[in-house]
Amino acid sequence: MAENKVCFSPACLSSGMRNDRDSQPAFHVGGIRFSQMGGSQCSFPPCEPDRVLVRVQKLTPEKADQLIWVRARIHTSRAKGKQCFLVLRQQQFNVQALVAVGERASKQMVKFAANINKESIVDVEAMVRRVEQKIESCSQQDVELHIERIFVISQAEPRLPLQLEDCVRPEGEGDEDGRATVNQDTRLDNRVIDLRTTTSHAIFRLQSGVCQLFRDTLTNKGFVEIQTPKIISAASEGGANVFTVSYFKTSAYLAQSPQLYKQMCICADFDKVFCVGPVFRAEDSNTHRHLTEFVGLDIELAFNYHYHEVIESITDTMVQIFKGLRDKFQTEIQTVGKQYSSEPFKFLEPTLRLEYTEGVAMLREAGVDMGDEEDLSTPNEKLLGRLVKEKYDTDFYVLDKYPLAVRPFYTMPDPNDKKYSNSYDMFMRGEEILSGAQRIHDAQLLTERAIHHNIDLEKIKSYIDSFRYGAPPHGGGGIGLERVCMLYLGLHNVRQVSMFPRDPKRLTP
Ligand code: ATP
Q1: Is 502 in the pocket of ligand 1 (CB under 6 A)?
Q2: What is the 3-class SS of 461-501, one letter each residue?
Q3: What is the pLDDT of residue 178?
Q4: What is the pLDDT of residues 489-502, one digit of tens each?
Q5: Superfamily (CATH H level) for 205-497
Q6: Residue 217 confidence (pLDDT)
Q7: How many CB atoms within 10 Å of residue 379?
Q8: Does residue 291's CB lie within 6 angstroms of at least one atom of ligand 1?
Q9: Residue range 409-435: mean pLDDT, rounded
Q10: How does 388-426 read in b/e, with b if 16+ C-beta sit within 10 Å?
Q11: Given this model, what pLDDT does residue 233 score?
């Protein structure tokens, strides 16, 4: 019963109250002694634990010769004679620890420590000692812990489905010297363990950074974050790649993008909107860059004079993200780079903008045979990325004025040449990360284009009606979060940057 009453409230821990250990009533949970206090400010049952847990990251020489408590996982364990060496890990930080038979530890304690399964969570009370030689294999290189007490807080099963050290081995290294590497399916089947690695932690902290920078940049530019429905009555992009779900006595679809709704917000005078949310695609595409559910970073804004205002706003947002990552996430970038090496990501200011016809001309010059109105295939997209890098030394650029025929029905045709459109894609390391356009804001033209694309007008009636009562010229784009992270870090598979990826063959974990 005592478990339910444990108070971990910071208010309680930081109250600075000291209790008389012997006179106060106490209870124990997982080896921690809690003293019950009277008159605490805390709304939980008042109590004070007998230890303050220090973060592994904070174990520096300043803490030398102090007796401290640490809660961490047993990363590795190696018994040798009368001592046992442990590496204790907490997220991406780890520290060497030692239990040795002596005044402070018995033979039984060394044996007990040596028998704790890897990945178990322990509390240790230990003396912090400065070391003469740096411990290169640990993040805390200047100190080690001399353990005096050890409690198992949560025991891991003895057999792990995969070893963390195999999961972080640099690409290619394992195969050469015969050491194990872990294939992607095994990693994803046991994702929680795979996610514990320093590489995974770095990837997902960086991903969180991309979302944060996206939100901060757009909020500073006066955008409003909106939420759009994910269960919808009509496929937003038309076409077949939509999941149907049963919806009471009828059926509905999972949104392929927030497209129609973010535009409807523009019709409702929100002027500049963005959203971050799941996007569903029922495409049987088993490639390195397609998921059936991904996170869309979407932008839509009204413009005053020219749709290039929209391109500028989006490219500036991307540049702010790249700068933020470069300046605030170097540790993460380098951690990932140790396992998956890649060239640092390069970008220009202002962002390079090429027209589709220029891109086609560069490809033709490189020997590609393609028509004016043909869409870019994935290999051609990558080739063009390499040609652009060689010529302009950038990993990020915009291709503007796509052929109208290869774009969705709501795309604004180019007023000067109806074969083309006011639409654009953006690329990182030669792969598409964004599709966008000026949208048609005239109900009549929108209706004509929808008919041209064989879209059932009845199903998008409320969308088209939104434009009947006046709508400002506007445009925007949709970005795939996982693609941005994958390509920024120079990784080769979008599943590495999706915590629990969904693809045509994977629905679990
Ligand atoms: P692709 O040609 O690569 O299949 P798309 O043209 O279907 O992409 P859009 O529908 O324009 O892409 O979506 C906008 C952005 O969303 C893309 O540029 C990409 O970053 C991301 N995206 C699209 N489809 C997927 C997917 N299946 N998995 C992950 N991200 C995706």
Answers
A1: no
A2: HHHHHCCCCCCCCEEEEEEEHHHHHHHHHCCCCHHHHCCCC
A3: 67
A4: 999 999 999 999 99
A5: Bira Bifunctional Protein; Domain 2 (3.30.930.10)
A6: 98
A7: 10
A8: yes
A9: 97
A10: bbeeeebbbbbbbbbbbeebbbbbbbbeeeeebbbbbbb
A11: 87
Q: Do domains 56-154 and 205-497 have the same CATH topology?
A: no
What is the model's pTM? 0.90
Q: What is the mean pLDDT of residues 334-354?
A: 97
Q: What per-residue confidence (pLDDT) applies to 174? A: 60
The SS3 of residue 295 is strand
371-392: average pLDDT: 96
Assess contact for 272 and 223: CB atoms under 8 A. yes
Residue 30 is predicted with a pLDDT of 58
Separation of alpha carbons 146 and 71, rounded Å? 14
Residue 281: CB within 6 Å of ligand 1? yes
Residue nearest to atom 8 of ligand 1 (CA): 432
Q: How far apart are CA 302 and CA 309, in angstroms?
A: 9
The amino acid sitting at 348 is L
Percent of the chain with pLDDT over 70: 89
Q: Which residues are catalytic?
A: 281, 283, 289-290, 432, 435, 483
Predicted local distance difference test score (pLDDT) of residue 51: 85
Count other Cβ atoms within 10 Å, centred on residue 345: 18
How far apart are the CA of 301 and the centre of ligand 1, in A? 20
- Domain extent listing, the chain: 1-50, 56-154, 164-194, 205-497
Options 1.10.3470.10, 2.40.50.140, 3.30.360.10, 2.120.10.30; CATH of 56-154: 2.40.50.140
Atom of ligand 1 nearest to the CA of 494: 29
